Amino acid sequence: MTASKKSKLQPVVPFSLFSARDVELFQEGIHAHLYEKFGAHTLEYEGVKGTYFAVWAPNAAYVSVIGDFNEWDHYSHTLYPRWDKSGIWEGFVPHAKKGALYKYFIRSNSGEELRKGDPYANYWELRPRTASVAWQLDYKWKDKRWMEQRKKHNSLESPFSVYEVHLGSWRRPDKNDHEVFYTYAEIAAMLIPYVKDMGFTHVELMPVMEHPFDGSWGYQGTGYYAPTARYGSPQDFMAFIDAFHHAGIGVILDWVPSHFPYDAHGLYRFDGSHTYEYADMRKGYHPDWNSYIFNYARNEVRSFLLSNAVFWLDKFHVDGLRVDAVASMIHLNYSRETGAWEPNELGGEENLEAISFLKHMNETIYKLFPDVQTIAEESTSFYGVSRPVYMGGLGFGMKWMMGWMNDTLAYFKRDPFNRKWHQDQLTFSIAYAFTENFMLPLSHDEVVHGKSPMMYKMPGDDWQKLANLRLMYSYMFTHPGTKLLFMGDEFGQTTEWNYKSELDWHLLDHISHQGLQQYVKALNHLYTSEPALYIKQFEYYGFEWVNVSDHENSILAYMRKSYHSKEDILVVLNMTPMAHEQYLLGIDGEGQWKEILNSDDTRFFGSGVINTGVLTAGESPVNGKSHALPLRIPPLGASIFKRANS
User: Fold this and answer.
1) What is the sign of the dihedral through the CA atoms of 347, 348, 351 and 352?
2) PANTHER family attached here (predicted)?
């Protein structure tokens, strides 16, 4: 290429990656791959290397690219508006290279001037800097085996034990310096062996999409198409996921299609108008989070969000999306007083546009990626969140069981000797446990904002607190549904989670906390190795109450059932510190049972009230059952049994 040839190219060359069909799908709200069109794409045009830029700014009178390649000049690199009135501005900038810093300079029709980051950027500067970075997502994946086999790992008939992690505060190079982070590679080197050893099947990462404020924990995002630069490059994050897959661990991303912050470089009033958010602040402003709500009625916004969900599954091989704040998306009156919201066209409280978006999003995801899961954080009794769209549902794979979480924590906070009056707080969950595909969450939300760490929610002295925790986790891991546990809960964190520091790893110097950690490890092993605990985890015929009436002793017993009775698991829970040496548990039918896990075992820092050898059910009517099984019942403990001849 001669110098004269190069010089013939204008500063911005008319060029497009969009076909007419792309624009049509974009405007219909059903384009699932916009990340291949919008944003910054390095390519070669007429023998000249450079970068193609495309941005949607329908209310703009003028758009240019400003960056370190043109000294942030507002007028040297003007983009071309498409002739089809789509609101898309685009053009090829010769010699703009990968790694170039850039923003869009936008003058709105009202004359307002804005400098915005790229909504589709794949990389951003590290906060507090706010420029986008021209980047490519080339990466050679090494997880072919996982991708070919992940259907069995992510099946609804497979065990799902999720370790929820905030990457910045799991461990830190210096727990007193919140400005320094480990890299994706360094975190992976420590986190993967730990998760593997503990027996979790998946990790769920609190939002890794680029966000300006650490204190939002990632839930106030500006860079929806970019993993945060706090820990490295997009390729570093790809290698991070690759390494988890190589270890046989799935990766779920926390995803926030509900709201975004008002930072000047972000989506808010992107082109001087309410581009991405509702114009009516009764729908467009979120009073709880001081943020703005996506306009699900605008098709281009629907395409932006749909493409974003697909983007993480496609380009980053993630195994699922946990969708944040679904309740706030689908209810117009969410956290709003009377008069502060307007009913929908049918007079109801549902956001019909958000509902239709979620249905289409889930249908699209499961069509393109049938071996992943979408998981809704939805706190109401809205019908069919995890039911297929063709059955009138929203189409999610699973839904967080917030009612179970609230009732369980409320029960375990009680003095054990008062629990007999409140047994219904535990038994009630089974009444609705099979109306959805529920995941049982003990998440970050339960250990912040003055709610206290999990250990100090429990009553009693330190021994009783830990015994209560082991008991509660036993209940969680044997209750129908999949599981999610926030980092630190597994070893009895004694302070609330602090995103600026790291977990209290020094607690593992104490055998009491080691015992809890080892017990969670044992529960994970039990859950993943016993089909009765997961094969029917969403089916009512996978559960049977054995004893639900012993309120006086606060003892509960139930069976988890597999397809084969020899695999059935019997669970006995004692909610008081009173041990029982010869407790007769009424069960149906004869048989021999063997204890396979006991939370009071001394290796878990228990008192050692365990059942040894083979236990035989004798023919003796007890509590309406034909036989009686004599048991040692541990104090504040769980005894878990399996048929001895299995």
Assistant:
1) negative
2) 1,4-ALPHA-GLUCAN-BRANCHING ENZYME
